[in-house]
Amino acid sequence: MKKIVLSIIIILIATGSLFAQKGTIFGIISDANTGETLIGANIVYGQGKGVSTDANGKFTLQLPYGDYTFSISYAGYLPETRKVKIGSKPYQLDVKLKTTILDEVRVVADIARVRETPVAFTNVLPTRISEQIAGRDIPMMLNSTPGVYATQTGGGDGDARITIRGFSARNVGVLLDGVPVNDMENGLVYWSNWFGLDAVTRNIQIQRGLGASKLALPSVGGTINIITRGIEERRGGSIKQEMGDNGYLSTSFGYNSGKLKHGWGITAAGTYKQGDGWVDKTWTKAYFLYVKVDKFIGKHIISFSAYGAPQSHGQRSYNMPAACYSTKWAREHGIDSADLTKYKSEYTFGHGLQYNQHWGTIEEYQITNYGKPNADTTNRGHFKDKNERINEYFKPQLTLKDFWNVNQRLSISNIAYMSIGSGWWHTKQKNDGFVTQWRNGFSDRI
Question: Do 115 and 258 belong to one domain?
Answer without folding.
Answer: yes
